[in-house]
Design brief:
Blueprint (H helix, E strand, L loop, with lengths): L1 E2 L5 E12 L4 E2 L1 E5 L13 H16 L6 H13 L3 E2 L22 H8 L1 E2 L1 H15 L5 E6 L2 E8 L8 E4 L19 H6 L25 H5 L5 E4 L11 E2 L3 E5 L38 E5 L12 E4 L4 E6 L3 E2 L20 E4 L5 E5 L7 E5 L4 E2 L1 H4 L4 E6 L3 H4 L5 E7 L15 E5 L2 E5 L4 H5 L2 E4 L6 E3 L9 E11 L9 E6 L8 E7 L10 E2 L2 E3 L1
Parallel strand pairs: 1-28, 5-6, 10-30
Antiparallel strand pairs: 2-24, 2-27, 3-11, 4-23, 7-8, 7-10, 8-9, 12-13, 13-22, 14-15, 15-21, 16-22, 17-20, 17-22, 18-19, 18-21, 25-26, 27-31, 28-29
Helix pairs in contact: 1-2
């Protein structure tokens, strides 16, 4: 059975074109020689990430990451130092409000760059996209155990032969070797002999990797069940790209983010390999806005047009996009107070303009009237949790000259991917690839704006997307979430096609995508997958 075009799509989560930037700065990135936190240029593509992971594994363990097992452990080691366990504030992906239960952040790069934290099912769904690139198609799966969403990877070679699922749990920082220490074990194997989940049982077999580094009772308590599997439950969109227009700056702050091994990243850089006690959890709320965009467009020249998508003699419309997430100061101290009205400091306007202001978070299909411009106008509640917006000023560009208009957008960024410096001096590498991104997602309302035929929830839907000012498109990234069934049918093939000539001809972006069924499986399945 073959399903064409967008393959039984429930939601086109993202469809991007990367574009060549002009006099503005496209895709600036920095890398330092800090041994643990060199910055985004060390991890902003899978190729860079895998090279960094391999180097880290070799430095910590003393072994090159050549086999599937070693590559998996290198990935696991790196993620433990850059992503911690905490409940993440949700994006309103489905237009049903922030608290909706389906609003999991499943996109890999957003999870890594904008958050750096999430609950067990969240981190493991995102991580499956990394395993797709590291070990092959559908080589990672989220596994439901007792009160926990764990993770297994399919390893090949050596003791694993043509392929075997083994435990690789980032959330509770646990891998478990057999009695001889020669191979990693699967969840069913651990379930059959729970002594293997005890960190005190034959600790030398673990090669320095402490079992249950979050809490000693985790592994013995959760691997008593083997309930369900979720295949392809996360996806990776385009690599994260920052695009700065002339007159725009981005300043990122490491705080919160201390290098004391307690409050910076969950495990601390010295509390992984060889640890005897692990890193116990510290209750609290992860709240920060540490990536500050300040944009002051110059209306006395044509420079302001680098940020404009639409203008005439009565209005100017600017666009904003970020790989991070627009943050908010909550109105109270409740754990998820950011979901409530009254938030501040996420999007603030400054200057002396007096025109009407409107904002759109669905790519311009609908607009929210924000009243008359005033210095300090705070639009946070209208854009919080988003990664893009359109901002319309009800005045022509010449009328805005001399108003000192400044747009402040404060975002949440994972401090662990920001570049750090070493004591005694550091070498800093800077690179700007000259790219920017325009996105028709990830929310369903953003994607709906671009639908030209078909509809979501049907076997086929078509979207159209163009670069903002006619720039040359250099890449396309697309993903769709679909109902794959329980259990998923490996005989169904899914496709995503792309046309650059108005639909006259089509080329595959994803062709013959399937959900393979391999090895030992639990009795139940998550009935959704990504293509």
């Amino acid at each position: 059975m073959t399903l064409p075009r967008w393959a039984s799509v429930m939601l086109v989560v993202a469809a991007w074109h990367a574009v060549l930037a002009r006099a503005d700065v496209g895709d600036p990135q920095v890398r330092t020689d800090h041994p643990w936190y060199p910055g985004e240029l060390a991890c902003s593509t899978f190729e860079r990430l895998f090279a960094t992971q391999a180097e880290r594994h070799h430095r910590v363990v003393g072994v090159e990451a050549l086999t599937d097992e070693q590559k998996a452990l290198a990935s696991w080691l790196w993620r433990n130092a850059h992503y911690y366990h905490a409940e993440d504030g949700r994006q309103d992906l489905w237009g049903k409000g922030f608290p909706d239960g389906d609003n999991w952040t499943r996109e890999y790069w957003t999870g890594l760059f904008a958050f750096g934290f999430g609950l067990c099912g969240t981190t493991h769904s995102q991580w499956s996209a990394e395993m797709e690139r590291l070990l092959g198609h559908a080589s990672g799966r989220v596994v439901g155990v007792d009160g926990h969403s764990s993770f297994e990877v399919l390893l090949t070679g050596g003791a694993y032969g043509k392929g075997k699922w083994v435990l690789l749990d980032h959330d509770i920082s646990t891998v478990i070797f057999d009695r001889q220490g020669t191979a990693l074990l699967s969840i069913p194997e651990i379930k059959a002999d729970l002594r293997l989940a005890d960190r005190k049982f034959l600790p030398e077999r673990q090669h320095g990797w402490l079992i249950s580094a979050l809490h000693p009772d985790d592994a013995p308590g959760v691997y008593t069940q083997f309930n369900s599997a979720a295949y392809l439950s996360g996806y990776a969109g385009p690599p994260p790209v920052v695009h700065l227009r002339r007159g725009e700056t981005l300043r990122r702050y490491l705080q919160p983010g201390l290098e004391d091994g307690k409050t910076f990243v969950f495990w601390g850089r010295k509390k992984m390999h060889g640890s005897r006690a692990g890193t116990p959890p510290q209750p609290g709320t992860a709240r920060y806005g540490n990536a500050v965009y300040s944009y002051r467009p110059d209306f006395t020249t044509a420079d302001y047009r680098e940020g404009v998508i639409d203008e005439d003699d009565r209005h100017v419309t600017f666009t904003f996009a970020t790989p991070y997430l627009i943050g908010a100061t909550p109105p109270n101290a409740e754990p998820l107070g950011v979901y409530q009205m009254g938030c501040r400091n996420g999007l603030v306007l400054r200057g002396k303009a007096g025109c009407p202001v409107a904002v759109s978070v669905d790519r311009g299909r609908t607009w929210q009237d924000c009243g008359k411009f005033r210095h300090g106008l705070d639009l946070t509640d209208r854009v919080k949790g988003q990664r893009q917006y359109f901002l319309r000023f009800g005045a022509a560009a010449p009328e805005l000259a001399g108003t000192d208009l400044t747009i402040l957008t404060v975002c949440q960024a994972n401090a662990a991917i920001l570049p750090h410096l070493k004591e005694g001096g550091s070498t800093v590498h800077f690179e700007a690839a000259g790219k920017a991104v325009v996105s028709a997602g990830p929310t369903i309302e953003q994607a709906r704006t671009h639908v030209t035929s078909g509809s979501f929830g049907t076997p086929e839907v078509t979207l159209a997307l163009a670069t903002p000012r006619g720039e040359q498109a250099v890449a396309v990234h697309a993903a769709g979430q679909f109902a794959s069934g329980s259990p998923p049918d490996p005989g169904i093939r899914y496709h995503i096609d792309c046309s650059t000539d108005g639909g006259k001809t089509w080329q595959p972006v994803v062709k013959d995508w399937t959900i393979p069924r391999r090895g030992q499986e639990p009795p139940d399945f998550w009935s959704q997958s990504f293509c």
